[in-house]
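Mods, move this if it's the wrong board.
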Amino acid sequence: MPGPLSGMKVIELAHIMAGPVAGLMLADMGADVIKVEKTEGGDDTRRFLPPDIHGESAAFMMMNRNKRGIALDLKTSAAREALLRMLTTADVVIENYRHDTMARLGLGYDTLKAINPGLIYCEISGFGRTGPYAERGGFDLIAQGMSGLMSVTGEAPGRPPVKVGPPVTDITAGILAAMGCAAAYARKLQTGEGQRVDTSLFEAGITQTYWQSAITFATGNPPGPMGSAHPLNAPYEAFHTADGWLTLGAANQVNWERMLKVIGAPELNNDPRFASNRQRLENRLALAAMLAPYFEARPTSYWLAELEAAGVPAGPVLSIAEMHRDPQTLARNMVVATEHPVAGRVETIGLPVKFHGTPGGVARPAPVFGQHTREVLAEYGFDDDEIRELCDMGAAIDGTKAMERK
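Not the wrong board. C-alpha cells:
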C-alpha cells in the first residue's frame, strides 16, 4: 500500500521490541523498511518460542510485517561496507543497541552524517543518549518501575507493585520514535538536512503519567494505585455484574444523573457525599460500595444496552480473543491477515491511524530469515558475483535457498 510515507527509505538496525515497533509503524505508513538482522540466528524474537506457526515465531511475525529482511554479519568489514553503501541513500536509520555499539562498528552518527548529510539517525535506548543513565541498558520492566508507572498500577496502596500488562514503554518508545522520524523527515523535505532523533523507554513511561504528574505537581502528593478507577473523575471504573465486568464512565454531572436513572437510584443524587465530582472523588470508595449491588443484580449485556440507550459511556471487559472478534475491531481493520511463505495465513494487528487520502496498511508478511538479502543488495548495485562472495564468506545470508528447502 502506498501510504503517506511512500518514498521514505528506512534501514532498521533494531531488535526485539522498541526499534521494530518504530520500523513497523513507518512501514505501515508506506516507508520501505529494510530490517538488517545478525547472521547468528537473526532478531532475538525469532527465538521467542512458543508460540509458533509452522516453526515461525509468532512474536517475530507480529513485530516485523511490511518489512524486507536481510542478514549481515556487521562484525565483518565486508558486511559493514555493504551496509554503508545502503546508508548513503537512506532517509532513516533506526537503532536500539546499547551505548556506543554503533560507534564501535564504525556506524556512529558523525560517520554516517559525513557520507549522508540528509540521514535521520534514530536512536532508541533504555534511558536516552544523554544524562547520568545514558550508558545503562534498559528493559520495559525497569522503565515501568523507574518512570513511576508501577507506583500507580495495581489494586490499592500497600499491595505489591504491578506492571502494566503489555510492554507499554517498549511500544510507546517505538511510536514516539516513529513520530520523531516522520517529523524529521518533514524537515528534511524542506531543507535537505537530516538530524539525530533520540528517545527512550524511560521517557516513554514518563509520558504515560500526565494525569498523575499533574496531580503531583499541583499538590505535592503523588497518587498511588487505584485499580481501575480514575484519579480525577468518579464514578469511572469497572464494576462487577451478574456475569462478568462492566466499565463505566459516568464522570461528568450529566452522565452521573443519567446513570442514576438507569440503575434506579435517583436518591443518590441528593446525598451530599456525591453532589459533585469533587465530593464523589473524596468519597470514591463509599460510592463504589453503594453502586456495586445495583450492577451485580443484572448481567453485563443488560447494563450495556440500558446505559447506551441513556447515553452513558460503558463497555465490557473483553479478553484479547474477544477483542479480536469484536465487530468494531474488524470494521476498523485492526485484525488483518497476510500470507507468509512458510507459516501460511498469519493474522496480525492493523494500522491504528487511518489516512483517507493515502491509506497505509499491512500488505507484506514478516520476512523469513534472510529472505530479501539478494533482492536488496541487487537494488543497491551489488552484482551476482559480489552477493555470492558476501554469502560465501559468511558476511551475509541469502534466505531464499532455505525457503526453497521448506
